[in-house]
């Protein structure tokens, strides 16, 4: 803890940046489907909403540009943080003015797409700054802050939005959310130390995706990133639509989601870090996807009528799903940060892992929503359970492969 206090100005800035990054995507992928469904939108019309997260999937395409291009006068990372955070504040402020209904859905999606693009680009700079400035045990703590911060932002933009709207209305809710990126913008301008944004000596080669792809075990890491995201959405987002159609109020759904967010951050992330340390990376990941599979099966039983749609079962499913999200996220990002720490293009390397993870989340979200529109909630939840089983099987296979590499002494991921 002392090491974080010694760099408290940098840590505060990084924390607020990670927190603000999760808000736009949380609104788009978690709150918006429920709000539009509540306003009468059909299920099939909601399947395209996860596409708002597309910039997070393809940001690897411009990650080398963020690493290589910047203004010496402004600073290597500030050159990207300042304009991107300004865009996020403007988009959320505009969303507060127009509201989010079926009639304004087109404008709302456009604003959130721009905010998502800005947040994804800023994330590259933030990850790069963290990897450049911290190392050793401190980097692991910063990685925990990253996961918790983005998740809190996501749950705040999702379940938090639903709760605030239920209490104060849409305008007040979106203005309150806009205050977070505004605070991070202030920190980047006046709190972030100048030496924290220093540039390293010019590397022998520019950052590039080709250099990442040529590193040993990079493709195994990407496979795990894809699977970790697919398990995280197995039943989590779909459950809110299921509860809405079962007659739950937006306020009740929002409170359940907020409670799940707390479990994710406190028990999922904290427990995930402990499991990685005690069991190793792959076993911890398997424990996480097992929780996801159990939650999906319980939702399946409720949708099929074998269990009652009661608060007790909903809470149990939410706790299991939240634990799964935290544990799998900690596992994959621990692997990603460890991998990137051995290179001189940390922003690009971490972004490649994150983009692959976001691709898995996007594919799973859209596929399950489309499938549910055709075969019902039982089919959607059962698919989520099957994805969790597949992820666990492949993770165990990857563990055996990485253990074999570790015997040779040339693997940085095996544990």
From TrEMBL:
Record's GO cellular component terms: membrane
GO molecular function: transmembrane transporter activity
Domain of life where this protein originates: Bacteria
Transmembrane segments: 46-66, 87-109, 144-165, 172-192, 219-243, 255-275, 281-301, 313-335, 375-395
Pfam families for this protein: MFS_1
Localization annotation: Membrane
Name of the molecule in the record: MFS transporter
Source species of the chain: Burkholderia cepacia
